[in-house]
Amino acid sequence: MIRPRNYWRNLALFALLNLVIASVVVGLWLAYSRAQILVHPARYQAERTPIDLAITNWEEITFVTSDGLWLRGWFTPPAPYNRAAVIFLHGLGTNREHLLGEAARLVAHGYGALLFDLRNHGASDGNITTLGYVEVEDVRGAVNFLLARSEVDPQRIALMGHSMGAGTAIRAAARIAHVRAVIAASAYTSIEDNIADGVEGLTGLPAFPFAPLVIWFGEHETGLDIRQVRPIDDAPLIAPRALLLIHGQDDALIPVRNAWQLYQAAREPKQLYIVPNAGHSGLLDASPREWERQVLGFFARCGLAVDGGP
């Protein structure tokens, strides 16, 4: 059989074209699937309750957001001599149990604690996660819940968040006047500024070319402009209320430079605690006594200490 002229070259080009098309299709599918993981994280129910950490005075609670979602959580009232309460905001893909250890430490000092599942997490309503944008309304609902509780002094409400919860706490405090103080652990300056690190850490894909694709698919799914999620722009608006930033020195998911940049952007009163030899999570476990000293000292300086001091 006589083959056409340039047969082998054309065959090679055809095979190469198909390989390129297949690579593009696979790349787009990987980026799309990873974006779906970010905006639709797997749900996990809490396996422990406050009783497992020796918190005995607690109750199951629900409250509703401004956009009609029912959120579920736990509430421990503050001691009568304190009347201060802390709202705890967990990270992406976790639930109300995430910061239970931190809550137990503060409950032991007389603080109230409200731990709840953010929208689209745990047992709460919702089917989409916006990485701290719409979640501000979840915090507003939590604050309104505390304002309706007679055990809580409306002037003694604080937020404590980790990762996505930290970014949400900063953004919420800039918009909710009743928040007296914010503790943000492993917070990001903005989603946009951390695309490369976040995509690599959360999805396992190389930053290029997947980061822009993951963000594009995420924006298409949520209908939001990711550039609007910028805690670094919100941090200065918290003043004259207090902000404490906590970050692991060896955080590979949200590098420690984020904490320094947020600290520089924030106005006084502000405090920065870099945890040596700590990564993205486990900041309390890395140095429990120092964590407690930093947090209680912070509350003392912003007027939320028990009887005037920790």
Q: What is the element layout, followed by pairings?
A:
Elements: H1 7-39, E1 59-64, E2 70-76, E3 85-89, H2 100-107, E4 112-116, H3 136-147, E5 157-162, H4 164-173, E6 179-185, H5 195-203, H6 207-222, H7 231-234, E7 242-248, H8 257-265, E8 270-275, H9 283-286, H10 288-301
Parallel strand pairs: 3-4, 3-5, 5-6, 6-7, 7-8
Antiparallel strand pairs: 1-2, 2-4
Explain the overall architecture.
The structure is a single chain. By secondary structure, the chain is of the alpha/beta class. The protein folds into 2 domains: 1-39 and 203-227; 45-190 and 229-308, Alpha/Beta hydrolase fold, catalytic domain (Rossmann fold, 3-Layer(aba) Sandwich), CATH 3.40.50.1820. Helix content is 38%, strand content 16%. The chain has helices at residues 7-39, 100-107, 136-147, 164-173, 195-203, 207-222, 231-234, 257-265, 283-286, 288-301, and strands at residues 59-64, 70-76, 85-89, 112-116, 157-162, 179-185, 242-248, 270-275. Helix 1 packs across helix 6, helix 3 packs across helix 4 (164-173) and helix 5 packs across helix 6. The radius of gyration is 23 Å and the shape is globular. 44% of the residues are buried. The model has no long low-confidence stretch (mean pLDDT 88).
